[in-house]
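Field reference: sequence -> structure
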Amino acid sequence: MDNLFLLLFLASFVCLIIGLVKPMVFSRFIKGEITRKKIGLIFGIATVAFFVMFGMTTDTSKQTQSNTNEKVAEQKTELKQLSPEEQAKKDADDALAKKQADEAKAKQEAEAKAQKEAEEAAKNVPAEYKSALNKAASYANTMHMSKRGVYDQLVSEYGEKFSAAAAQYAIDNVKADWNANALAKAKTYQDTMNMSPAGIHDQLTSAYGEKFTQSEADYAIQHLND
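Structure field:
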């Protein structure tokens, strides 16, 4: 655009000079009396106008070119060739980030799937099974009973009288820390009955006592004085 106004400026200036020397040259194009004053006014205004427009468009073009050059420079900087070591590190970092993102996504999907399956399974659980599970949670978490002790209590004809299947479902799904239960029972025997560690261990594992496993009783004795 600035080149166009430059050409128009030069053309107007040339016409101005010619008009001042031989005004009659423009008699075909200008109606009325042809005088040097009239020619000078017409082409003088045109010359000044095109010169101003040329200056304005030149500044805009320079600014546009400057912005373009800056963008090109930025792109060149971004595309700067990395050294083999830098490229290898970048590739490794990118691969690690992708792996972590994939693992996080897979974990979320697996958890969502497991939760959905659990919810679907819970809808089909018989009422007796749900009741047995609630009882098991109460015995395990408030009375600190062993897994075997809870099961026996659930199926006992002198206890809860649940079916073996319902009791087993409860044991398989109850949330309890059996080691912590054994330790709680052991501290009770020590603090209220003043029993020895060996006596406590026997009571914890006895079929007629608490019915904890050997490893659960061992854990309780090891942490008895913590």
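Note: The longest helix spans residues 36-78.
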